[in-house]
From TrEMBL:
Highest rank taxon of the organism: Bacteria
Lineage start: Bacteria, Bacillati, Actinomycetota, Actinomycetes, Micrococcales
Protein's name according to its UniProt entry: Winged helix-turn-helix transcriptional regulator
Transcription in keyword set: yes
InterPro entries, sorted: ArsR-like_HTH (IPR011991), DUF5937 (IPR045981), HTH_ArsR_DNA-bd_dom (IPR001845), Metal_resp_trans_reg (IPR051011), WH-like_DNA-bd_sf (IPR036388), WH_DNA-bd_sf (IPR036390)
Pfam family, one: DUF5937
Coiled coil: none
Length: 318
């Protein structure tokens, strides 16, 4: 069991994050044991044809038969808006000793594929992950991200109405919270008692965990990865609207903005991208938000817009 000890100031600093790289890392479990992830069977069936194109030697070196995954492919996300490209670039700066220690915690030794010059090992690792993302995750990431964002939004509402304690207690059957301690029961002999001490506790929803899990390395920032709610409907089929009809319905500019907002963006970013004024973009965004096609969130001083589930249904490409 892992215990995170929280002071009152730590409880108020609990936050959520979404990590594309972590989803890829945890998704390697489904590569190894697809029968353990029946809700993701439609995904594993769809990607079966591209698996021979992947660097299976590298990917197999990141996860073992217990489905333990190397911590460096489960980074703690900085926000709900972290991008895969940013996380992959950060991974390129990994220190040799961190790479070795994370792999040794999983396998007891460093797999042969990760032996050799550090820069070449990291380059091959990045390429293997980039290819896996492009072929297996990117085409389906909008669906996965919708589930993760909806989970975070739901738990945010729970926190607002019932407090963060209700959120922590409701993450998973394997998580307990008594007001001071977050206890995570694992299917492993690992046991530790760790104070958070101002580092912050990050809660990371995932579609590839059956029960809550934590980093293997005790020195890593306190993080709990937990099963996202709503996975059962993630692969439900829906009709694909005609793109021309969407333009006729919304108008060319709003249809283009809606299409662009598969990833969060600010009105300033969108104005620069489309060569129009920020005020004009804001007007369109507000109308689409009121119409339920967009959601918005604040990140620092910026307001970011992104498609809602309804908006996704209008432009769905998967």
């Amino acid at each position: 069991m892992i215990r995170y000890r929280l002071e009152p100031s730590d409880v108020s600093a609990v936050r959520f994050g979404i990590s594309p790289l972590s989803e890829l890392g945890l998704g390697l479990r489904a590569f190894r044991a697809p029968e353990r992830y029946p809700l993701q069977r439609p995904w594993t069936d769809r990607i079966a044809g591209v698996l021979p194109l992947l660097d299976r030697e590298v990917l197999s070196g990141l996860v073992d038969e217990r489905r333990w995954v190397a911590d460096f492919v489960n980074p703690r996300p900085d926000s709900p808006l972290t991008s895969f490209d940013d996380e992959l670039r950060a991974l390129g700066r990994i220190r040799p000793e961190r790479l070795r220690s994370d792999l040794e915690r999983v396998h007891g030794t460093v797999p042969a594929v990760f032996a050799g010059r550090h820069d070449r090992v990291v380059e091959r690792l990045q390429q293997a992950l980039a290819t896996t993302w492009e072929l297996c995750f990117a085409p389906y990431w909008p669906r996965m991200r919708r589930v993760l964002q909806a989970d975070v939004a739901h738990r945010g509402r729970v926190a607002a109405h019932e407090g963060i304690g209700a959120v922590l207690a409701g993450l998973s059957e394997s998580v307990r919270f008594d007001g001071r301690h977050v206890d995570v029961r694992l299917n492993s002999p690992i046991a530790r008692d760790r104070p958070v001490q101002g580092e912050g506790l990050t809660l990371v929803p995932s579609v590839f965990v059956v029960r809550a899990s934590t980093p293997i390395d005790d020195d890593l920032p306190p993080t709990v990865m937990y099963p996202a709610r709503g996975q059962g409907a993630m692969w439900s089929t829906a009709s694909h609207p005609d793109a021309g009809a969407v333009r006729d319905l919304l108008g060319r500019t709003r249809a283009a903005l809606l299409d662009a907002l598969g990833e969060p963006a600010s009105s300033t970013d969108l104005a620069m991208r489309f060569g129009v004024s920020t005020s004009a973009v804001n007007q369109h965004l507000r109308v689409m938000e009121r119409g339920g096609l967009l959601n918005r969130t604040r990140y620092g001083r910026a307001v970011l817009y992104y498609r809602s589930t309804v908006g996704d249904a209008l432009v769905r490409r998967e």
